[in-house]
Design goal:
Keywords: Thiamine pyrophosphate, Transferase. By secondary structure, the chain is α/β, with parallel strands linked by helices. Helix content is 38%, strand content 9%. The chain starts with 7 loop residues before the first strand and ends in a 16-residue tail after the last helix.
Length: 363
């Protein structure tokens, strides 16, 4: 199950790192993710487990934010682009004290705001990330505003799944981030090897990930994504890199610490069921053995940034749209054409026989 390091270390100018506390927090986040998805009867506990140490380090050591006001303009931003790992995001915020850990058992209930994927109806979520490949673009926009408009010190952290990293939108965002030298952004790639139905294209070929990201102009680190000390060190170093954005390629295991499930296929998007109780007991026994109940202190941002007063934003001149008669005629003709096309198509025998063993015939 791995071992805890009881020592405390310090990297650069950062605060002391309580390694054992952060490792223990990662396992508590795993336990919450198992319980929540088991209660819901659905969800992605194995996808949560691969980022447990990353979430622990970010939320309880690296990021600066206000627990009771998560969207304070001076707070660091966090985007979970692999939104299906929402249970561990909710678990992290519950551990901060924003809401009760008991609420995690309401995951995916019809009357619960803790949906299967994060949505902005929650006070700690800036964007919805149900659609994979979108999170990094939004993070890029936040970092651009932070550096060039707000001119503020807050940083932006985005976790990207290795499966979604195959999407073109991720690489468009990387190009934008590099071009504008967004050194206030850290893109974290969770390289856990396994996609939804099969291994990802590159699996654990972290050298190829590194070469590609460096080619895009990123300051790039390859780390053991389950090594708390290594993660703390690289996040700290990234703070002092200027004019280059940082990418952290975290080599992880899907279902880390889930005995019999870790790094195995066919466990994507499935609660652990009866296996969950056994795995929770193993994790709890380890926590008891190490005797670690401490939580690292969450540090609020020192900087103050005024909230934008949206009602004061006005057009210099109200738009005055005038539809020409020619436009209206074309619009009406288009409506008539579409209606005729649909009516004619529905009347053709082949359209309503799609599920036959022959090709669809329209005439």
């Amino acid at each position: 199950m791995g071992s805890y390091c009881s020592s405390q270390v310090k990297f650069g100018k950062s605060k002391i790192v309580d390694v054992s506390s952060l490792e223990a927090m990662a396992d508590r986040l795993r336990i919450h993710s198992i319980r929540a998805t088991n209660a819901a009867g659905s969800g992605h506990p194995t996808s949560c487990s691969s980022i447990a140490e990353i979430m622990s380090v970010l939320f309880f050591h690296v990021m600066r934010y206000k627990v009771l006001n998560p969207k304070d303009p001076a707070s660091d931003r966090f985007i979970l682009s692999k939104g299906h790992a929402a249970p561990i995001l909710y678990a992290a915020w519950a551990e901060t004290g924003l809401f009760s850990v008991d609420d995690l058992l309401n995951l995916r209930k019809i009357d619960s705001d803790l949906e299967g994927h994060p949505t902005p109806r929650l006070s700690f979520v800036d964007i919805a990330t149900g659609s994979l490949g979108q999170g990094l673009s939004c993070a890029a926009g936040m970092a651009y505003v932070g550096k060039y408009i707000d001119k503020a010190s807050y940083r932006v952290y985005c976790i990207i799944g290795d499966g979604e990293s195959a999407e073109g939108s991720i690489w468009e965002a990387l190009a934008f981030i590099s071009h504008y030298k967004l050194d206030n952004l850290v893109a974290i790639f969770d390289v856990n090897r396994l996609g939804q139905s099969e291994p990802t294209t590159l699996q654990h070929d972290v050298d190829t990930y590194k070469a590609r990201l460096e080619a895009f102009g990123f300051n790039t680190y390859v780390v053991d994504g389950h090594n708390v000390s290594e993660l703390c060190k690289r996040f700290e170093e990234a703070k002092y890199v200027k004019d280059y954005p940082t990418a952290i390629i975290a080599k992880t295991l899907k279902g880390k610490k889930f005995s019999g499930i870790e790094n195995q296929e066919n466990w994507h998007g499935k609660p652990l069921g009866e296996k969950g109780a056994e795995i929770i007991k193993l994790l709890q026994d380890e926590l008891m053995k190490k005797g670690t109940e401490n939580k690292s202190e969450i540090v609020a941002p020192e900087e103050q940034i005024p909230m934008v007063n949206y009602p004061e934003i006005k057009f210099k001149e109200e738009p005055n749209y005038v539809y020409s008669e020619k436009f209206i005629l074309k619009l009406n003709n288009s409506k008539r054409y579409i209606s005729k096309l649909l009516y004619t198509s529905m009347g053709r025998s082949g359209v309503l026989k799609v599920l036959t063993d022959k090709f669809v015939k329209f005439l």
